[in-house]
Amino acid sequence: FQALRFAVEEINRSPDLLPNRTLGFYVYDSCAALQSELEGTLWMLTGQSPAILNYCCRESPPLAAIIGHSLSTYSILMAHILGQYRFPQVSYFSTSSLLSDRKQFSSFFRTVPSDIFQSKGIAQLVKHFKWTWVGLIAADDDYGHEGIEVLRQEIIKEGICVAYTEYISSNFIFKNIWNIANVIKESSAKVVVAFSTDIYLIPVLDEMLKLNVTGKIFISSEGWSTSNVISAKKYSSLLYGSLGIAFYSSNIQGFHDFLNSINPFNTSGITWSKLFWQEAFRCRLVDQTNIKNSCTGEEDLETVQNSYNDVSNLRASYNIYTAVYVIAKAMDDLSHCQHLDGPLPKSKCSDLDNFKPWQLLYYIKNVRVNLSNGREVSFDKDGNPPAVYDIVNWQPGADGTIKQVKVGSYDSRNSSGDVFGIKTTTISWGTKNKEIPLSVCSQSCPEGFRKATRQGEPVCCFECVPCGQGEISNQTNSIECWKCPWDMWPNSARDRCLSKPIEFLSYEEPLAIILASTGVISSLIPISIFRLFIRYKSTPIVRANNYSVSCILLVSLSFCFLCALAFIGYPQPEKCLLRQAAFGLVFTLCVSCILAKTVIVVFAFMATKPGSRLKKWTTPRVPYMIITICTFIQLTLCIFWLSISPPFPQYNIEAKPGIIVVECNENSQFAFWCMLGYLGFLASVSFTVAFLARRLPDSYNEAKFITFSMLAFLSVWVSFIPASLSAQGKYTVAMEIFAILTSTWALVFCMFLPKCFVILFRPNMNTKEKLMGKDRSRM
Asked: What pTM, to 2 d.p., does this model score?
């Protein structure tokens, strides 16, 4: 009220604003009752009580505009009525977003921002401190419902989840207060946003004290962010550290002196002034001076320090002050035809004694007021001023009460786009460690994990799932993991990709060194036996075993040992192209020699039968024919393989996770297994023929040794098939080398060890008689 008086008197003294005009005002107290508010609105419109609708008995001076109400619900009621007459209404405290609807409330304006901006500010505040799990409580009225709904939309946009929403009954019975306090206590949300006024919040705070609720941080709407009622010491344990959105505060020059100059007998509203005076000086205004604790009205307000004359943070008073100046500036514009396209002809622009409220409405819509603090006030298309808020922190004062300290601001006028600003270092938190509290449904997922939403719960409630094989996440709270490039692999923390190690059977590895050494040393054994055969080539045991074919077999066995070296080292294209073909041809040559020896043994014994036609197949050329034909067939298969689908080196990233296996791709598995199958076929034929000839009469029947050698050879390669399929990477190659060496050793051992033993250690058995079985008595 005093701010209204001060603004009117200041304007009346101004030579620039409405010169030679005197503003006046009516004040009506509805006592916060809707029926009284309705009566008061109609009284102001008609000029009499009881009101007569659509009739005004007040002729002069005209009622320019109405300032009020402070509560949104009451302002909505007034706006519905005043809008019918296009009567300007300026509220200084109603913030409901419903009042921005110009279709319903075309003549409503306000000097406070809409709750839409407040909700955006609260959402930015919650987001700034990374609170993703909050509870909402609101008054069960228009202010609470509309404010909380807009707030919910804004915080969801920012990725914040709502743990619960509770409404405080507005009928002052407060039946659900215990339930609200218990929900706040039991919820894991540490932050509670209260969209209410202090009168509705007090019962909730009282119940929270009874339930001993601690560890909660309140975020207040402007409805109670600067309330002196709940700043009492009683609530300090609950509200210490709270943050709130408050209306913009500013000083009004000269207002402090004006307040202190008030006298209960020389001011408007004498009844109110007397009550205030008695409360401020704790006395009674009476005529007699001899009554105890009496006062005269001459006391000095300078000696009193209370909320009345504290002008350090004017908010509601400043908004009332602004509302008066808005109306006065609009009237001034009307009197000067500030806008030539206005609703009045130019000849009537200055006639402020006779204008209609709807005519002034045009100038209020377009008004621009520069206040004494440098702030410019105007309205947007919805009748809202620029959104400017203070962010306040509830901190303990020296007397135990709580003080609201400005720690930041929200200013939609900021041209840089950074409308939200806060000084975190100036905030005093009510937590035990005095640090920013944490309010999340689930702890943040570290790098290397992704969020997996729990079924049926808000997105802020999630599980942290490790990234899958070959995937990483390099930021906290990642909603997905990303696959590494094909040549890279995650580190142990799965937060970055590292180059995959390359694997192949290298000569630098112990396994490769052992295999290579074994192959080289083993290749010398057949050569040594070859030299032994050359030395003893004239002896019966060497001659009886087809000396020439044995020499070819020994040389090919030496090459079999050496071909294992082609499988060791980095798989070059040339190696991949030739190594399997070389292995197949050399082993085919070996098995062909053994097959030729077997066939010749059978033919030799069967040709001794009378009338046998096999004599012509016992010539020296037959073994060479068999060797040549068998080897040629394998050569043909290899040529077709290398011509149509040649092997090539490849990077295998699937065999072993996290490792690039450099290997030779056979390209055509059919051709590879045809080559290997043909080799097995020759070995099987040799084994079968030798097995059938094992009982031929002779002291030294080579068919027995061939049988064992082929049995060992086939056993090795049959075992190789499942072993190679189960091995991975370089160990597959190592298994094939092992099979090559083992099968070759089987042939050397079974085919030539008995002969070498006889030549070196039983020379007496190296005679024709012994071999023919004619000297058995001496044996």
From this structure: 0.64
